[in-house]
Amino acid sequence: MSLFGLGSRNQKTFRPKKSAPSGSKGAQLKKHIDATLGSGNLREAVRLPPGEDLNEWLAINAVDFFNQVNILYGTLTEFCTPSTCPTMTAGAKYEYRWADGVTIKKPIEVSAPKYVEYLMEWIETQLDNESIFPQKLGAPFPPNFQDVVKTVFKRLFRVYAHIYHSHFQMIMSLKEEAHLNTCFKHFVLFTWEFRLIDQGELAPLYELVESILKR
Question: Are 42 and 185 in contact (CB under 8 A)?
Fold first, then answer.
């Protein structure tokens, strides 16, 4: 069964791939990511290329990781439903409630698919906001850019945490575990390299994170 061959799915949750910032430098950075990923050396792939701007590197990778998580979760939308996952959990100890600080200021309990829908919509809004993620290379990034990026990665981690705790058996039956593990390893190495997620947030998958970092 192919990654995309699961029939109908919630189109609001499963989004089309987003593109990296336009311009020759954006294309160069994307080529660098693809080339270094192709080498199989993920530790090398996450490092800031010499002479490149950190914010541009964070921005282009944020789009890539958003697309990766979007596709991974998209394979599970038939199985992650309000009845199977009435709350957004990562094991018995961790439950996530949604708030975006704008339309929903007080955290609310929602089903996992609703949480992921809110989460992906929130990230997409940030990525589409040119005052936060400038599309033209060389345009200035806002002073709070890295704070926004940290929130993006923190929220993407929660999708991984839910997938591993609630849907790993299904991932295995779809024969997607190698792909999931590679994507998550890349994600962990990148967020660790730039200290994007607080250690406390990693607790639901701490043993897996630790094993990745020790390799």
Answer: yes
Structure token digits, residue 145:
């850019």
Across the range 104-111, mean pLDDT stands at 96
For 169, counting Cβ atoms within 10 Å of its Cβ (0-12 exposed, 13-18 middle, 19+ buried), the class is exposed
The CA distance from 23 to 20, in Å, is 9
- Global pTM reads 0.85
Sign of torsion over alpha carbons 159, 160, 166, 171:
positive
* Cα(140)–Cα(78) distance, integer angstroms: 41
Tokens at residue 184, please?
């998550």
Nearest 10 degrees: Cα torsion 131, 63, 158, 125? 40
